[in-house]
Amino acid sequence: MNARLIANLRRQCGGPRDGALLRFSLGNALLGAGDAGAAVAELRHALTFDPTYSAAWKLLGKACIAAGQPQAAAEAWRDGIAVAAQRGDKQAEKEMIVFLRRLENPKP
Fold first, then answer.
1. Helices (H), ranges, 33-89
2. Less crowded by CB within 10 Å, the N or C end of the chain?
3. Per-residue pLDDT averaged across 5-13, rounded?
4. Residue range 89-108, pLDDT digits in tens
């Protein structure tokens, strides 16, 4: 099912429905399928469409972690925290603060 969903989403890329939500959805599906590197690329593409998309920043950080890029995850979450605070998206802001704190101060 996930491969079918990914193929369907990829077919829409570059068309009239291409945008932040489509790229976010594709990134989420790729991450779920275990392709973290491709997920990172699609989530970054989503943010070119809408740099204020808090959920994309949050998922980008998770994808970076899965891709073995903890520094990139920290940067994504820091940027996402700033965006969420500016938009008043308190829940996303709080979640990213927790993720960043756990990354920077791992428990033994």
1. 36-49, 54-66, 70-87
2. C
3. 96
4. 999 999 999 999 999 998 87
- Tell me the CA distances in angstroms from 29 to 52, 53, 83, 90, 108, one per residue in order: 21, 17, 24, 25, 31
Q: Which CATH architecture has domain 2-104?
A: Alpha Horseshoe (1.25)
Query: Which tokens hold the place of 20?
Result: 């932040």
Q: How far is the C-alpha of 61 from the C-alpha of 100, rounded, in Å? A: 9
Q: How far apart are CA 36 and CA 52, in angstroms?
A: 22
Which amino acid appears at position 35 of this protein?
A: D
User: pLDDT tens digit string along 28-70?
Assistant: 999 999 999 999 999 999 999 999 999 999 999 999 999 999 9
